[in-house]
Amino acid sequence: MDQAGWDGENERGAVGVGRIMQTWEAITSRRNVRSFAGRPIPPADLDQILEAGRRSPSSQNWQPWDFIVVTDHAQLRELAQVWQGAGHVAGSAAAIVVVGPAADNQFHRAQLDLGQAIMAMMLAAADLGIGSCHAGVADIQLARELLGLPEDRNWALLISLGYPADRPLVPIKNPKRRPFGEVVHRGRW
Ligand SMILES: Cc1cc2nc3c(=O)[nH]c(=O)nc-3n(C[C@H](O)[C@H](O)[C@H](O)COP(=O)(O)O)c2cc1C
Questions:
Q1: Would you kindly state where each structural domain of the chain is located, as residue ranges?
Q2: How confident is the model over 42-60, as pLDDT tens digits?
Q3: How much distance in Å is there from the Cα of 160 to the middle of ligand 1?
Q4: pLDDT value at position 21?
Q5: For 155-177, how does the pLDDT look when each residue is reduced to its tens digit (9 = 90+)?
Q6: Which CATH number is associated with domain 41-165?
Q7: The whole model's pTM is what?
Q8: Distance between CA 58 and CA 35 in Å, rounded?
Q9: Best mutation site among 134, 139, 140, 161 for ligand 1 pocket (most ligand atoms within 8 Å of CB)
Q10: Which residues line ligand 1 at a C-beta cut-off of 6 Å?
Q11: 133 Cα: distance to centroid of ligand 1 (angstroms)
């Protein structure tokens, strides 16, 4: 048994050896990638990323998410029109549309759950060397037309995915973040 108390295979056959290091590597290597190589993502890897989202924790295990996976290039280019900051979706190998629950008040409650699922999928992607980027959806009507969203669903966020065109994902020594000592308060503020 390894340090974390598990040394078996998961249902996708991935052996647990060294996985603590792999998790940290994925956390430190993930960055928002906005230009992608043309190479497609193997379907099993795409499913592993989606599975990371499905397994995410949520308040009272509510699981208020649905995922639509898009790999068709013409559809990806159309999806990129839903928000001015979604241009990176056009050249991605795939996009996962994370769809929120029906009512506004439920959505308010669901935000943290949805964020956890999104981050889990991005880390699972990084673990596979796959880059990812968020994109908000401003034009929900266009998203509805392109994706067939039910009428009562009013919120979605895109995750574009693909192998980075600029440079591979490697641990980032000095990420652009507020300093550790400013963010972390010990004992009290
Ligand atoms: C809720 C949320 C929405 C975001 N929306 C967009 C977006 O619409 N377009 C985009 O290019 N990046 C978007 N981002 C990515 C952020 O700009 C990015 O995480 C931030 O600049 C830090 O980048 P880094 O993780 O590469 O250091 C979003 C991130 C979050 C968490």
A1: 41-165
A2: 999 999 999 999 999 999 9
A3: 11
A4: 61
A5: 999 999 999 999 999 999 999 99
A6: 3.40.109.10
A7: 0.90
A8: 31
A9: 134
A10: 31-32, 34, 83, 85-86, 88, 133-136, 175-176
A11: 7
Q: For 9-23, 125-139, 156-170, which range has the lowest pLDDT when averaged over its residues?
A: 9-23
| Tens-digit pLDDT profile for residues 145-159 | 999 999 999 999 999
Confidence at residue 130, expressed as pLDDT on a 0 to 100 scale: 98
> Cα separation of 163 and 182, whole Å?
34
Q: Name the residue type at position 95.
A: A
- Give me ligand 1 centre to Cα 32, in Å: 7
